[in-house]
Amino acid sequence: MTHLKPPASPLAVCEDILRKSKQYNLEHHCLPSENRVIDRLLNRGHELESAYLELHRKLGHHPHALQEFLAKLLSTAAFWKPEDMKAARASRYRLIEVNREIADKAMELSTLLDERSVLHNHSGFASNTHYHVCEVIEEASEHNPLFGMEIGDKLSRLHYQYDLKYWPSLSDFMDELAQDASDADIEATDPLTKAATESSRSSKGDFLRAFLAAIEESSAQVFGRLPSDLKITDNTMASLINCALELKVDEMASADYVKRFRQKERERSRRTSYWTSASN
């Protein structure tokens, strides 16, 4: 009599995916941060049995969906964890300040360049400094061989073909830099960072918001591998957060926390949609 091998448990299936991901990373010398998340999940497998059961039930019959979901969990926990988003917020505030400083200093430099031009023209003295934007570009590109190969000759011909009145002054350049920095609109360069830093304070909600955005990005609705109607329960989300981020007992997310968070996000989304529609 032939004995059929019982199917692997959802825990075994999910942990096999995690181990293969870790092995791939080790072989290719990449993503050590994700490997650390994998180790946390493997070490706390007993806490994730019910979560893996739900994931396997909802994703196991969709090609590569379970692998995709776990991959999003790993990458989000590795690169959008709360401490990273705290640093990202600090970088955003610093970028705002840097642009403000650039605007102030560029305006100051523009004023000085104008004053130098007046002195050159009326003081009886000259300082033999740059006065034409083409000269600045050419000198600044001295160590860029591609400039000399592709652009230098063309710019030089234009420089001598058109006199100074056709070109912006050096102070005009500084004015433009000042205006550009002053008008800067700070935006996240990817959807997950945008989602994770929408609140004013850093918390585990940063990770949850980024993780939900990652799931949405991978849905079939936008040609991803996850089913468009995928809904993960609050209990499972809480377990994944706690284990992936290795939260301390007093920091752990509960199912109620996830539920309240989702309710707040839906309300915030409705308010945003309302004001966007009203403004249009």
Let me know the average pLDDT.
Answer: 93
Gap from first CA to last CA? 72 Å
Radius of gyration: 28 Å
By secondary-structure content and strand pairing, the structural class works out as mainly alpha
Series of H and E elements: HHHHHHHHHHHH
Largest sheet: none
Residue fraction in strands: under 5%
**Model regions low in confidence, pLDDT < 50 over at least 5 residues:** none
* Annotation field: number of helices: 12
- Overall shape: it is elongated
The count of DSSP E runs of length 2 or more, i.e. the number of strands, is 0
Specify the helix fraction band.
Answer: 55-70%
Set down the secondary structure blueprint.
Layout: H1 10-27, H2 32-43, H3 49-59, H4 65-79, H5 82-122, H6 133-140, H7 145-161, H8 170-182, H9 191-196, H10 204-217, H11 234-244, H12 255-279
Summarize this entry quickly:
This protein has helices spanning 10-27, 32-43, 49-59, 65-79, 82-122, 133-140, 145-161, 170-182, 191-196, 204-217, 234-244, 255-279.
How does this structure look, described?
Helices cover 68% and strands 0% of the residues. The chain has 280 residues and is an all-alpha fold. The longest helix has 41 residues, at 82-122. The model has no long low-confidence stretch (mean pLDDT 93).
